[in-house]
């Protein structure tokens, strides 16, 4: 479902409302809310809103469990860390129990072994139930990547694992990512996409020919859940169908 907003401020406010509503419904139904966060610059405004009223008091923080959609394999003190950014913008300011926050990093561990451990943590969290996140937030790069699902990478074909680590040659670093089959089990997914630099990729992903190898965001098609594209007018400028 496509939602076009005037600008980043309106988009972020609507995303905060979606976060609140999804969290409250999940807790009402299942007693807890499980979310995967995105990194990058797109969610910064949303995250700071979540730590402010009225959202702060509307979110059931005690029942919230926080995972990440992807991460750069860097320590939690590194400025490139998605976990560091989320902690600074909201997690350190809200009453979510520390032990319910699962950053994608552990000192003195290899990324591949860590990815396996993260997968086990997810399996433990979901127990007998299918690993369905209540909400996964995603960004999209101007090359059409999402999470750490980059064009032309092996991980795009992963079918058996929930989490993968791999070396991303062009960036000379390891990345950890939830895989597309896991993301697609989510009950709700929300892409945060704004700026004219995203317009061309957004057009290709939503209205272009199917080519997920080149535009990995096309892989994101939830089996049972909903996908919300929260975009601003600049990002939507090349779309023919505006709703
Ligand atoms: O950076 C990350 O952690 C994510 O891997 C990545 O998928 C991100 O969401 C997009 O690159 C969009 O980034 P921006 O929000 O900075 O445009």
Automatic annotation (TrEMBL):
The keyword Chloroplast does not apply. It catalyses: 6-phospho-D-glucono-1,5-lactone + H2O = 6-phospho-D-gluconate + H(+). Its EC number is 3.1.1.31. It comes from Pontibacter silvestris. InterPro entries: 6-phosphogluconolactonase_DevB, 6PGL, Glc/Gal-6P_isomerase, NagB/RpiA_transferase-like. This is 6-phosphogluconolactonase. Hydrolysis of 6-phosphogluconolactone to 6-phosphogluconate. One of its GO terms (molecular function) is 6-phosphogluconolactonase activity. Pathway: Carbohydrate degradation; pentose phosphate pathway; D-ribulose 5-phosphate from D-glucose 6-phosphate (oxidative stage): step 2/3. The lineage of its organism: Bacteria, Pseudomonadati, Bacteroidota, Cytophagia, Cytophagales. PANTHER family: 6-PHOSPHOGLUCONOLACTONASE. Keywords: Hydrolase. It comes from the Bacteria. Belongs to the glucosamine/galactosamine-6-phosphate isomerase family. 6-phosphogluconolactonase subfamily. Residues 6-229 form the Glucosamine/galactosamine-6-phosphate isomerase domain.
């Amino acid at each position: 479902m496509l939602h076009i907003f005037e600008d980043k401020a309106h988009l972020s406010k609507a995303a905060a409302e979606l976060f609140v509503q999804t969290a409250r419904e999940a807790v009402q139904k299942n007693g807890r809310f499980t979310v995967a966060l995105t990194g990058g610059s797109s969610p910064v405004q949303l995250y700071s809103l979540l730590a402010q009223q009225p959202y702060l008091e509307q979110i059931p923080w005690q029942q919230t469990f926080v995972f990440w959609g992807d991460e750069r394999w860097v320590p939690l003190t590194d400025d490139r860390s998605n976990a560091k950014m989320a902690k600074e913008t909201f997690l350190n300011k809200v009453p979510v129990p520390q032990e319910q926050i699962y950053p994608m990093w552990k000192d003195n561990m290899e990324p591949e072994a860590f990815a396996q451990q993260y997968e086990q943590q997810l399996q433990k969290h979901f127990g007998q139930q299918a690993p369905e996140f209540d909400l996964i937030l995603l960004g999209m790069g101007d090359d059409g990547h999402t999470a750490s699902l980059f064009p032309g990478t092996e991980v795009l074909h992963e079918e058996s694992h929930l989490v993968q680590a791999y070396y991303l040659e062009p960036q000379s670093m390891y990345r950890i990512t939830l895989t597309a089959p896991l993301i697609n089990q989510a009950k709700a997914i929300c892409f945060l996409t704004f700026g004219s630099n995203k317009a061309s990729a957004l057009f290709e992903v939503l209205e272009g020919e199917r080519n997920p190898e080149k535009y990995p965001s096309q892989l994101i098609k939830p089996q049972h859940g909903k996908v919300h594209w929260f975009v601003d007018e600049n990002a939507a400028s090349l779309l023919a169908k505006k709703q």
